[in-house]
Amino acid sequence: MEQRNLGRTGLTVSALGFGCGAVGGLFVKGDAAAQRQALDEAVAAGISYFDTAPSYGDGASETNLGQVLAESGASVRVGTKVRVLPGDVADAAGVIRRSLETSLRRLRRERVDLLQLHTRIGLRRDEDNGQLSLADALGPVLDGFRQVQSAGLTGHIGFTGLGETEALQQVLGAGAFESMQSYFNAVNPSAGWPGRAPGGEQDFAGVIGKAAAAGVGIIVIRPLAAGALGAVETRHPNAGGPGAGIVPGADYASHLRQAQHLAQVAAALGLDGPVELALRFVLSQPGVSTVLVGFSDRSQLSDALRWTERGALAPEAIEQILVAGAGLSDDLG
After folding, report:
1. pLDDT band for position 327 (50/70/90)?
2. What total of structural domains would you count in the chain?
3. Buried-most residue among 36, 65, 90, 232 (CB within 10 A)?
């Protein structure tokens, strides 16, 4: 497994990261034996970064990950998150400290490698939508993150790149956070290619390149568009529902239709299917440190490991995917 630099943190992380969230669901709904087997197989294959959060299964993900890591004794990188809502800003440091201490108890660790802000950021505060202002994020919230970092409870700090594109770019420009979780996939590749968002969806305006230039590590989230890029409507019993799109204008049904079209592109390229196309597409993007895939079972893990091992797609294959996505987006629009 290729190990990549996580920006300027000095950490290396596996190109394929293990997402322990509810969309895949293995570490939320799966049984303990399957979780342990999957972790052992992942570590043996070279996966070194595991992602979780307090909100995944109301703490179940952190608890289950902590249990299997304690049993296995594996040495891996662990990242978790904290959500700071607009109403929390006055006590941001306290909210962050209490949340992280609870996460550490569940994870059975004295510290995590990475703590990330898990709240949307805009130019102005929006209490109705739980959005922090730029001033909130770079003021009291950042101060709270620095306090837990100084206390040795986290090695590094990052943020989730959701909210208003301009605000996200300004957070990057401030140089305070060391990593960013970036929404990036074959149906909305605008974080890598400005202007490539499907009609009506948020354009992330090439934020991956801006982050990489600033030495910020990029952690790709939703590489399979909440499972839509599997191009089948049936979901695994462990998988959570796709829910409302986490990006303005995103629509699961539309993404599913796009995925069915991309399945034809995958066949033409000689790939195993749209999931291989989707995974290798985002892994091919310069500046990406790790791609988080949420697994429902061990067979999905095995597939992802095999496809990751095949490496980057050829430039002409990437261009075919971009052209196909743009054409379909125009048709749907």
Report:
1. low
2. 1
3. 65
Query: What angle do the packed helices 298-309 and 274-283 form, to 10 degrees?
Result: 50
User: Domain with 173 in it: what CATH number?
Assistant: 3.20.20.100
Task: Domain of residue 65: give its range.
Answer: 3-332
Judge residue 24's burial from the number of C-beta atoms within 10 Å of its C-beta, 0-12 exposed, 13-18 middle, 19 or more buried.
buried
The one-letter amino acid at 127: E
Give φ, ψ of 258 to 5 degrees: -65, -40
**Residue 9 and residue 153: Cα distance in Å, rounded?**
16
195 burial via Cβ count (<10 Å: 0-12, 13-18, 19+)? exposed
Spatial distance between the Cα atoms of 256 and 259, rounded to a whole number of angstroms: 5
Q: What is the mean pLDDT of residues 7-25?
A: 96
Report field, pTM of the whole predicted structure over 0.85: yes
For 151-210, write each residue's pLDDT tens digit: 999 999 999 999 999 999 999 999 999 999 999 999 999 999 999 998 889 999 999 999
The H or E element spanning position 158 is: strand 154-160
Mean pLDDT of the region 1-5: 96
The yes-or-no verdict on residue 75 having pLDDT over 90 is yes
